[in-house]
Amino acid sequence: MNAKEIHVGKLLKEACSQSNYKYAEIAELAGISRQTLNGWFKKPDLYVKDLFTISQVLGRDLVALFTQPTEEEQRTKVVLQIEIDKSKSNEVLQYIKDKNLYEILKSNT
């Protein structure tokens, strides 16, 4: 995860928008003004304590957004090319269908 690509205020606004609360209610429960909350939405970074405060109001761990890898970061793209005789293609395809691909790759290393 590249911290330069994260705009904390935008993520905060999105989390608040997804909640069942109006912005004014979130601000009141957090003990801040509506203007302060609106200002936070525009900031690319926030104090952790402020993010934690909103997390408590929303009942959602917003800090975890920055400590867990994104879905994209959890995936690895692998391109596998296999050259086989035509006579073996059905057998190989059936084997791939029946077996876990990881097991196939592991057994050939």
How are the SSEs ordered, and which strands pair?
Blueprint: H1 8-18, H2 23-30, H3 34-42, H4 48-58, H5 71-74, H6 89-98, H7 101-107
Characterize the structure shown.
The structure is a single chain. The chain has helices at 8-18, 23-30, 34-42, 48-58, 71-74, 89-98, 101-107. It has 7 helices and no strands. Helix content is 55%, strand content 0%. It folds into 2 domains: 3-71, lambda repressor-like DNA-binding domains (434 Repressor (Amino-terminal Domain)); 78-107, no CATH class. The longest helix is centred in the first third of the chain and has 11 residues, at 8-18. The mean pLDDT is 81. It starts with 7 loop residues before the first helix and ends with a helix. Helix 1 crosses helix 3 (34-42), helix 2 crosses helix 3 and helix 2 (23-30) packs across helix 4. The protein is mainly alpha-helical.
CATH architecture of the largest domain: Orthogonal Bundle
Structural class: mainly alpha
Mean pLDDT: 81
* Percent of residues in β-strands: under 5%
Shape, principal axes of CA atoms: rod-shaped
CATH superfamily (homologous) name of the largest domain: lambda repressor-like DNA-binding domains
Helicity level: 55-70%
Oligomeric description of these chains:
single chain
**Euclidean distance between termini CA atoms:** 30 Å
**Using only CA atoms, what is the Rg?**
24 Å
Tell me the number of structural domains: 2
Order of helices and strands: HHHHHHH
Biggest sheet details: none
Unreliable spans are: none
Tell me the total number of β-strands: 0
Number of helices: 7
CATH topology of the largest domain: 434 Repressor (Amino-terminal Domain)
CATH class of the largest domain: Mainly Alpha
